[in-house]
Model the fold of this input.
Amino acid sequence: MTTRTLYDKLWESHVVHEERDGATLLYIDRHLVHEVTSPQAYEGLKLAGRKPWRVDSIVATADHNTPTRNWEKGIAGIADPVSRLQVETLDRNIKEYGARVYFPFLDKQQGIVHVIGPEQGATLPGMTLVCGDSHTSTHGALGCLAFGIGTSEVEHVLATQCLVMKKTKCMNIVVEGALGRGITAKDVILAIIGKIGSAGGTGYTIEYTGAAIRALSMEGRMTLCNMSIEAGARAGMVAVDEKTIEYVKGRPLAPKGPMWEQAEAYWRTLASDPGARFDKVVTLDAGSIEPQVTWGTNPQMVTTVGGKVPDPAQEKDPVQREWITRALKYMNLKPNTPITEIRPDKVFIGACTNSRIEDLRIAAQVVKGRKVADSVKLAIVVPGSGRVKRQAEQEGLDRIFIAAGFEWREPGCSMCLGMNDDQLSPGERCASTSNRNFEGRQGPGGRTHLMSPAMAAAAAIAGHFVDVRTFN
Amino acid sequence: MERFIRSEGLVAPMDRANVDTDAIIPKQYLKSIKRTGYGPNLFDEWRYLDHGEPGMDHSKRPLNPDFVLNQPRYRGATVLLARENFGCGSSREHAPWALLQYGFQSVIAPSFADIFYTNSLKNGLLLIRLDAKIVDRLFNEALGAEGYRLAVDLERQTVTTPGGESFSFDIDPFAKHCLLNGIDEIGLTLEHADRIKAFEAKLRERQPWLF
Ligand code: SF4
Done:
């Protein structure tokens, strides 16, 4: 029998029909829906007189536009009428067409779509899972094939439960060895992007393997897979192991009883066969990974906390030189500035990359008994979901953050992209646990530095970027 | 889907690598529930000097004179020339909508991000991958000669310069077929409805927990 990669297995088990030129009709098990990329898809469906193929595959929530304060005001708390209309449109569409579960704005279980998928058991190993959102790659942490799609494809999945696709190439990123103290999944993925570049994974699906990946918690694996798209890959994944099974067990939408046993037996087969062939293999030594901080306007523009802002004059390629020069101008940074001299105006702990309970625990540990520096205008913690928020409150993390001078907010995407009120003002600099540092991403003219929750928490206290390993 | 067969038009050179979809159409315009109206907000933060919000009269906003698309010589461009990894980042389909509604029919670059590539084809925006060296040459020619135009022929899969030089490009045959014929892809998939149902029945047997 031929050996197969995990990607081969997930792909082949969902092929409905294959055309001669490799265009494949692929069946989709789970469709996550949010308010921003779905209205035009539902409208298209309606205009064509079609109905959703299988509504029980749909799990929906409103997360991008929702405010993180003033929930007591209800829907009127969404001050921007355009945002409110989008949230209400999702309400209307789900009411009209249905869904397996819907977590609307103000629901106790509402949250960022990529946080609630795994925590509700809506994401299961072996699935094909899509969402009109590029960070759908997150879910691959559970050993499933999960990728982001555009609105036309959202409509396609709604109407047919399938997508027409071609199989991608498969890349194996192997992280061997053990991570040093204070190094997290966020540092690993930023180091990977620094190594292969933000287009390094274009045309590939990535499978992460190696001792350091197996040692990561499930939440760490989600952080890792989340940013596969920042490496250019539509999907990233990690094989199923004991941790995966333990994580899924008992989740609200996970199978129970005899069906659980049947599912578990199948899930345990979801790993690449020994000797399976990949189109490309990249290896990293976990022990050499240092805390990472981005300095530019693309996640590839990253260095270690002990590093410096690069000097474009050292870059030989003219296109790259121009790119770096433009980024430094936008970021208002001088070449060769030590990273530890950069001072944030705001600190954001949240986003689908790093807003789960473990992230909040790590950040809370750093800030415990300390105060946010006076130079930091605003430091906020935005839990990824209502469940994460309540769990954190039970553990007293909210009180630690508040005592240190952080604001403790309601769940949602928040300042990751600032579609709600949580934004950077022009020129403001932010230490952020999100995944994109593009120009204007967190607010027009805003300057984003990506880092781990521990590093962002330490920056809030110190008032400048600091190596969390020496911070005490 | 809009059909695409042939086009010949003015070229605008966008000389930046890794242009992301946040730059192509900023988030505030994603709040719209419509498919149209994005043209005035293409590259909004680079194109205007002030900050734009939905509902503004964009024709009255101050233009950034340094931005390439605001230069009179590129007015009416239908071919966008770009650098590597164009369209990276968010999956927002508003990005190809904005490019099309502004007036672009095709984008030429050494490479595109995957989701953006798929989204564009589904809307009839033709993305053409050419070797980085060729793209570099086209940049030089476009910057050097005012009124520089390129002819794009999807049927023959070629880009032809005013000098008569032709470069061929690859495209997936199915995507080409859909573009040439303006196919309703959902309708096409629904022709396989029986196959989908049969697959579903088998899947339900093998993995009942998915249902
Ligand atoms: S948290 Fe940020 S990256 Fe994640 S889904 Fe929301 S907007 Fe997208």
Chain B touches chain A through 58 residues (CB under 8 Å). Chain B has a mean pLDDT of 95. The longest helix of chain B spans residues 193-206.
